[in-house]
Fold this protein.
Amino acid sequence: MSNKNNIHQATKDISWLSKLHQKLLPQDPDIGYMPYVWLSYLMMFFLSYFFQTLTSEQTVISIACVLVFLILYFRIFWVAEKQAYFYIAGIWLIGFILAINDFFGAATFFVYSAAFCTQFKHPITGFKVLAILIILTIISGLLFQISPYIYLSGSFFALVIGASNIIMQEMTNKNKQIKASQEEIKKIATSAERERIARDLHDLIGHTFSVINIKSQLAKKLVSQDANKAIQEIKEIEKISRASLSQVREVVSDYRKRDLTTELSQARILLDSLEINVAENISPIDQLNLNPEKNTALAYIVRELTTNIMRHSQATECKINLDADEKHISLTIEDNGHAEETYQAGSGLKGISERAEQLGGNVEFKVHQGFTAYIKLPITDTI
């Protein structure tokens, strides 16, 4: 009974923390939990307590300043760019108030204000605000005779951390734009392929059905006038229909054909675009003596496993090995993603197993620090 109570209490604690997190920070994956980690730098301010003796007035001022800082700190993640100016200025002002009251750790807040210069869309704006903050820190330090230890160290670390954050944020934004562009290119390519298929089928089937429609109407008219000619027209309709069906099957078969070399190349490009490092150990495919059936099967398997990695694995690395010995062709695709030990094989993995079994081969799936697929096909066809 006590275990149930403990579990219930732990669930309550987690729920409470989750609600608090939702109130403190926006539910944005780009923000996540990192702001809590960044708060660890606040320890630099509290370390000053050990290096100076504080009066009761200084203690009250420091506690009040830290509380106001925490409000501004968490609130700045919610506000628009125009409002960010005021929050950054407020954090800098906290540092200034503590500095004129001779707090050694006042420079901590100068650094925090500089770190938030990433809140602006354009890096130039961020650098301008950073420059203003540093100039204000130096001028106020000289005018109010603040200890050089406070305003010089604060200016230096504000410059380093502020500039670094702005540059890193700009790199992150550019990477997002590149990913978005790559996704857009994929959509455009897919759309173009669909249009091509639709155009080919229209050209092929449209003409055929037009002919069938005309001949059907002619046969209908001839039924009462000349039965023999009507039968002849119907036979021609049947002949055209069979030829058309054969053409459609041929076209569809061409669409469904997959080439192993092409699929391996496309898999590499796709995984690279998702920032998944690909390590390949692939024997020359033209030396594997693959018949068309095995080539198509392996191409299908590569595509399905690549799709599986892309959709489910959250991997950062992928290894692809393809080689052969005297009896077998072996394909291994391994990732370092997050696969569940008790995974359920979907239609894609079942399709891989079925194709391999039809060719007399076997498939093995393993979950160990990621997902691994082993495919082995015989070189000689089995009966």
User: Anything to note?
Assistant: The chain has three domains: 21-180, 181-256, 260-378. Residues 21-180 form one domain. Residues 108 and 228 are 101 Å apart (CA to CA).
